Amino acid sequence: MHTLLAATAADSEGFFAWLNALFVEQTWPRALLIVIVVGLTVPGLVSALVWAERRGSALIQDRLGPNRCGPFGMFQSFADLAKFLFKEDVIPGHVNKPIYLLAPAIAVIPPLVALAFVPFGANVFIADVDTGILAAFAVTSLHVYAISLGGWASNSKFPLLGGVRASAQMISYEIALGLSALGVFIIVGDLRLISVVEMQTDGWMIGAGETLRSAGDWTRLFDWNIFKQPLGALIFMIAGFAETNRHPFDMPEAESELAAGFHAEYSSMKFALFFLGEYAAMVVFSSLFVVLYLGGWTLFGLENVLSDWVTSYGAENAGWINWASVAEGFLHVGIFFSKTLVLLLFFIWVRWTLPRFRYDQLMRLGWVRLLPLSLAWLVVTVIGVAIVRGL
Amino acid sequence: MAYVKVKRRELTFAERMYLPAILKGLSHTFKHFVGAGGRAGVTMQYPEEKWELPNFYRGVPALVKDEDGREKCVACSLCEFVCPPRAISIIPQEIEGVVEKAPEVFDIDMLRCIFCGYCEEVCPEEAIFMSKEYEICGTSREELVYGKSKLYEIGLTLGDDGGVTDATKKWERLAREQSEQGVDTHQGADTE
Predict the structure, then answer these.
(1) Per the count of CB atoms within 10 A, which of A80, A226, A285, B27 is most buried?
(2) Range of the domain at B136
(3) pTM greater than the 0.80 cutoff
(4) Is the predicted ipTM greater than 0.90, yes or no?
């Protein structure tokens, strides 16, 4: 395992030696470091996303969008954040106060916790859990409580309807979500998300212990799981849109039907927390999609070439920090987040293209179409894997 | 009532799948995103760019002075009387000079003004005109009661391009327009 500090630091004495020992012998200091980085990055990413959403929607609708605050209006989100912080915090008299206050917190925490299970790079992760995807799903599914509790505690009609819709919708689509992802794990044979990424560099299995790599290096282009599980990826994508309550499945909000839906009674920072939670959930879902289907931090084998280059450069410039390890980490995270960003922009693109589904259409799609389809795909995958591995 | 049974067309498999339609929609919005959608770039950057206002535009009423720099208003209070929302209040004072009166205070409450233009129409001295000024803002009610100095200041924005905005030649223009339209302009003069 790479360490953050250079080997020379281990030989020296005093603070650096102590620091090195800490990072080598314990896992929590590095995890803490990544927690801090992720905890600061995600809100920043969310504010960038909000800006991208507003500018993107404006361009799609032939408008300009916010363009006054900073270059291209990039600082608009920060201005909005300042506004949210200083606005009066209204708590309506008719709400159930403890639950009403709890709901926005629940909206933010699960997506941020779920990021703990996502491997951003070969050595950049917070927790390497054996049940990786199960833990991530378990945590993200808590997100439904934020919306349904918020809708319930608001004690008025539209928020309640939003909350009820949310609970029904998210629970129905969770089944399709889980079943569609199952195909990947049947191929991998392991629930660890790091194994899932590493498997996606192995190439197509065409027999026990044999891969298609013998046909040439061009086969690396098709290593990602999206080529092995196209239908699974599609169902996972659709279910993910429903899970994050994004268009065309934004039933809990449904502006034209429910005013603001579940967050109609929320204002100032509490509303902003719901907002943050929604976008953080998008980030989590996109990260999971990248890990499961788009090869995580891999890039058709190019990442190894780049990695060798940066590590050799880092080795030459060694100091008390192991630059080779740090550079490789940045490379992996860079590749990972580029893919995630593309997916997030796709989320935005879809939102400003499609009309909202009707509620019964949503339920029929979930239970009558996607659920049987994902089961059928699972059977196909099982048979395929059995044939390839020679039963 | 007779009714017709409309036979609905069977949807094809691709249509029922919905996904081709989604791809079509995505390509359509992408065209707009890159600016090929037809109406991109029509947004006006407001404080920097502004509309060309027509000459008949009725903005904030403004007071003007004559070519010798004298106040044209003689504080006759006709505009004050005609003003439907009673936005104008005038306190006259006696002065030495060509005319005997001038307004000491001439206030227009812009919170009340309805931009009807009656003050301009009724004024016998061509002293008040509707300007093209429409950005009316302030941080208090008092600030939005425009006093004499403010009204003369706005009056400076009135051009003299021969149209309605010619601040000093209203009767000449009316006479010109009437003769153009074949109206007997001496009728009024005979009865004098």
Answers:
(1) A285
(2) 61-184
(3) no
(4) no
